[in-house]
Amino acid sequence: MVEILKDNPPTARQPLKGLYISARLLSLVFNIPLWTLYYALFPRPRASWTVKEAVLVRLFRYLMPLNALCKLAPQTLDKTREVPESELKETSFVWLQPVDETLLKGAAKDTKVEPVKIPGYIWPKATPIPADGSLVGLWIHGGGYMMGNGSENFPEGDVARQVFRHTKIEHILSVDYRVSSEACHPAQLQDALAAYSHLVNTIGVSPSRIFLFGACSGGHLVLLLLRYLYEEKVLPMPGSVMLFSPWVDMQIDLDIAAKKCGPRPNHDIDMLAASYYANLRFLGHHPISFLSSPYGSANRAPPGSYKSYPRTFISVGDAEAFQRECTELYTLMHNDGVDVTLDVQVDAVHDFYGSGPLMPHDTARANVTKRLVNWMRGK
Ligand SMILES: *[C@@H]1O[C@H](CO)[C@@H](O)[C@H](O)[C@H]1NC(C)=O
Ligand SMILES: *[C@@H]1O[C@H](CO)[C@@H](O)[C@H](O)[C@H]1NC(C)=O
């Protein structure tokens, strides 16, 4: 176990970093034609995928480890910069003030990580979120806690865009929380809490009108925030929760690396390539046991500890590596009497709802939207 607990592989430093990245990128010149030929001639991982889809999924899986192995933080920019309106078409920029110290207890308190001011974005543009009875979404983007941002220009913002366009949610706040190259845990929890408290305390939105939602590691942060609200009761729980391909289990990445268990289901066909380096960087100076706690791995919370959780919609694909942990989470919540829905789309890969036309496939996305709309109507 000991030797795997280093958060810096040799590829995180020069010159290996540059060499490794160049080699991976250069090899695409051969790999893309090879994969194309292969998937044209032989059965694809799922018969419903086109050759292009099969190649794209493979390409994502091939490039994704670069973030973890080379400590890259793509699509994450300086969070002290106010993004000008000219760079935004659908949203407006808003500053979210550092979360009030009185809301910080237990897991959100740390001697080394302090609350800071962070960027937020609101849908629709130039329309402040009102305190009236509108339905308001709080969106948390994904990216393995390593990459991405909360702006409309980050591709996965498509989740928020679809929810905004197709459901009765009238306003959405997207939080641009700190990723682990900027600060480790509990920075992400502090920032998510800052956004939630901005809605509840600053604007005065009723928590029961709030839909807290996230994708991938954003789904993990949703679950982290919920667990914190459940444990510390600093603010009421939101009325509803939506999780899209959420990362649920942080412990399993270490267990897999230490060969204590087999790989995740679909790990060899999904676009996701998980790495425990992401978990260790998120963890920072905190004890490793945090990863298997209900904060780190919501599927490892004891039965009974989901009572009083809000109504929840979980979306996952059946070709995705997170399928099992999503099902475990669903079962725990369901057994605790939570009003929880699990929607599994056939042949869909990780983050299919937030990956636009790149990923298989359009029907799955349309199905989820339809199901979401019905779910909001109470069906
Ligand atoms: C967010 O990501 C998009 C897409 O890569 C990028 O164009 C944009 O500059 C990023 N914005 C911020 C504020 O990080
Ligand atoms: C979408 O829903 C239809 C009907 O409910 C179903 O037959 C189909 O398999 C679904 N598509 C996917 C990709 O799951």
UniProtKB/TrEMBL annotation:
The chain crosses the membrane at residues 20-42. GO terms for molecular function: hydrolase activity. Keywords: Hydrolase, Membrane, Transmembrane, Transmembrane helix. Pfam families: Abhydrolase_3. Residues 138-353 form the Alpha/beta hydrolase fold-3 domain. This is Alpha beta-hydrolase. The lineage of its organism: Eukaryota, Fungi, Dikarya, Basidiomycota, Agaricomycotina.
